[in-house]
């Protein structure tokens, strides 16, 4: 038997969707399990023994209509018995329709019954600490006779990757005996980035603990913005920031994060990866992301998050991504008590 799962989206989505494979492998131990994803998300799937093969969708190579047809033919050529479409968009629906698979599963939409043999109505309210982000994906297994149970996404680092992270830190005079905090400094877009002047205040608060050492998570094309954030921090805070120590790849980021006492900052893939590594997280949600869908495994100790709706529940947030004034209402002073609680609970204050 061959089973494929489709999720050609962002890193966080792919990581969360990967929980499906643990359940599939338990139910169908002899089945060949494939994951159909975009090329840039592969690092979060490396060393995952539940996945037998990764099928890459690369829109930079397979462009336009002809590229789409080529992708569709590649999927059909695999001769899958079952396809689970976690992405549930028109292009992936077409993949399923013309795949030749006897059973195709996705979420219920107005057009979905034409493309899939089985459709799932998403639950409106979360039923576990995993939240809807994970719950909805695991719901897709119901037509296969697999009952829901909470599964946490996991990342699988090799010892050599951990050793390399330790080597990078020690070579840059970072003391492994003192707490290291990774800052998710910049979101994936402007609308998902906490105002820099506010983030600087958060970092200033964190470094009241004189033993703390700070790393910034940013990619090369974000360096200018990251430097602007660094310069907004107090001079005494800047002394504790190792600005030039940053991950050159996703796997390197995972290795460095595995050595941190916490990850604090903007919601996104970095937060999801930290949780998958069992690193405590303090998450600042963009006003335009539904916190209750994505604040996975939240508690009052190792995972805490804040959202503007926690303090201004009646704000109209829909279709307001360009309204930067909404994000500016979430001043650090408002949630400082939660930040202090997080730092105390994780022995950082």
In sequence order, what are the helices and strands, one letter per element? EHHEEHEHEHEHHEHEHHHEHEHEHHH
How many β-strand stretches? 11
What low-confidence regions span 5 or more consecutive residues with pLDDT below 50?
none
The profile of the biggest β sheet is: 6 strands, parallel
Characterise this structure.
By secondary structure, the chain is α/β, with parallel strands linked by helices. 38% of the residues lie in helices and 15% in strands. It has 16 helices and eleven strands. The protein has a six-stranded parallel beta sheet, sandwiched between helices. A five-stranded parallel beta sheet has the order 8-7-9-10-11, sandwiched between helices. Helix 5 links the parallel strand 5 (103-107) and strand 6. Helix 7 (159-171) crosses helix 11 (250-258). The radius of gyration is 21 Å and the shape is globular.
Detail the topology: elements first, then pairings.
Elements: E1 2-6, H1 11-17, H2 19-27, E2 32-38, E3 53-57, H3 64-77, E4 82-85, H4 90-97, E5 103-107, H5 112-115, E6 118-120, H6 131-139, H7 159-171, E7 180-184, H8 196-206, E8 213-217, H9 223-232, H10 235-238, H11 250-258, E9 262-266, H12 269-276, E10 281-284, H13 291-294, E11 303-306, H14 308-311, H15 324-328, H16 332-345
Parallel strand pairs: 1-2, 1-4, 2-3, 4-5, 5-6, 7-8, 7-9, 9-10, 10-11
Helix pairs in contact: 1-12, 7-11, 8-9, 8-16
